[in-house]
């Protein structure tokens, strides 16, 4: 009897210690997100209400902003560009996604891969390619009939290219699953294809369309790289931030614009959330999955459309690669690798590319670890409800914060002499931190999705056996979630290679990244070298993505065959 009491007492003590460790670990995750996301944004908001001497002035900075006609016009221009880009991109992506999911399109895997290629490139790549096509010395400049590519035309065209894969990814998912019985009923009733499309297909894809429009609109309104390269004198909010901070050292006005950039993102995010409430499931237990039927005329039409869109994507990427190999455009079109000798235009040579590789690697490693541990603690352990709620709130915040706004917040927070973390400013560490913070939400949701697929019996059995939660996580949950972890690490790496806006203000001497080098080389007129560096970023991202595919396939077929045991 005494030994039994001793065991129970020991188990109770161990359980109490484990609860304490879980709570401390969750507090650490919350504190980390507080530093990475919340405090920098709070610093930005507070800075917008102080003058350059540190005196509180309330909304005076906002009044000064709206009193300036040129600055007011930047809001109108930004909204115009975003609306136009969204209006073009979403229909194109819907048509492309429809072809991939609802028709007998040949070579679907190839066309899907081509559609996602722009994600692997920095946003500056299409802007540089368009300069070679339609710029002052472009080979198709005459096609613009006197119009200039440097302005709204170039901005919208490049943004459509860059935002297209994001919209396609969302809409392909929205159109992938549908109940064939609805279409069979429509066919039995001799419903016209147009009415079937209007009454069945579109309503089923409504949430996907709203979500895609919200994502594209946000990308367009907060983009910095494209406008910086091909925007000319056309003023938008993202460029005005750069001008106020770098050009005129007006940090307060920069903070005001940073706050204004958050507002459209919050609005689109809210609209997406409201649309989600009205979304109903498309498949039930009795549903029959829709299989595309052969419709010769439709298949020919969508194949032609898909080929044209894919050809444009490949053409723009191909022009960028060609431009990086030309000796001296447009006078000497001999192909050579001279533009890849970056020491000609920068004494540091390839160091910016190496810096990007280092920063991307650390972002992938640290970001994946932080995201997975935070998601595991929130989803699979018994922590205080309030802490779990705060963690979820902080994890979702970055999706509504533009990169350039977050970067500004980091300036105001980490560059303050009174901040004990001031020593991080200008280091690789702060670049890793801001990149993790900027892209945190999507990996977090990926990890949560993977964890929710696992039965809670794993944790219940471990608790019954007195196994600490960290052992269960390490020995059971982590190995099962390896494919998701690889996805998360790849996502962090690719975005760290291509990011511009979030890091444009934060790099120190010797810490310049490849994406920033592209901006600076384009600024100095070394466009061919800028194209070469952008191509290197694209190739690196493509190689990493290919490695992810190979490794994931190997893991699924050799070490996790149980996933396919009952398929």
Task: Explain what you see.
By secondary structure, the protein is mostly helical. It has two domains: 1-47 and 338-567, MetI-like (MetI-like fold, Orthogonal Bundle); 68-336, MetI-like fold. It has helices at residues 2-47, 60-67, 69-102, 108-115, 124-134, 152-176, 180-188, 193-204, 206-222, 225-230, 237-247, 251-277, 296-325, 351-380, 385-396, 403-414, 428-438, 441-452, 457-464, 469-480, 482-498, 514-523, 527-559; strands at residues 326-328, 332-335. It has a two-stranded antiparallel ribbon with strand order 1-2. It is globular, with a radius of gyration of 26 Å. Mean pLDDT is 84; it is low at 1-13.
Compile the SSE list and pairings.
Elements lengths: L1 H46 L12 H8 L1 H34 L5 H8 L8 H11 L17 H25 L3 H9 L4 H12 L1 H17 L2 H6 L6 H11 L3 H27 L18 H30 E3 L3 E4 L15 H30 L4 H12 L6 H12 L13 H11 L2 H12 L4 H8 L4 H12 L1 H17 L15 H10 L3 H33 L8
Antiparallel strand pairs: 1-2
Helix count, DSSP H or I runs of 4 or more residues: 23
CATH topology of the largest domain: MetI-like fold
Low-confidence stretches: 1-13
Mean pLDDT: 84
Largest sheet: 2 strands, antiparallel
Number of strands: 2
Task: Give keywords.
2 domains, mainly alpha, 567 residues, single chain, MetI-like fold, two-stranded antiparallel sheet
Concise summary:
The chain has helices at residues 2-47, 60-67, 69-102, 108-115, 124-134, 152-176, 180-188, 193-204, 206-222, 225-230, 237-247, 251-277, 296-325, 351-380, 385-396, 403-414, 428-438, 441-452, 457-464, 469-480, 482-498, 514-523, 527-559, and strands at residues 326-328, 332-335.
